[in-house]
């Protein structure tokens, strides 16, 4: 329950910050996060395929 409260407080803080940031900054930050998530997903998928094929 404490984790849920902390997560909601953090989400509210982040959304409040984004609401006051310029649109160009928000879009740039969103693009960086999206690229980071895509790279992470590709690395995870590639790592799992290599790991499962070895066994």
UniProtKB/TrEMBL annotation:
Which keywords appear in this protein's UniProt record, sorted alphabetically? Membrane, Transmembrane, Transmembrane helix
- Report the source organism: Streptomyces caeni
The molecule here is called Small hydrophobic membrane protein
Q: Which domain of life is it from?
A: Bacteria
Where does the chain cross the membrane?
A: 26-42
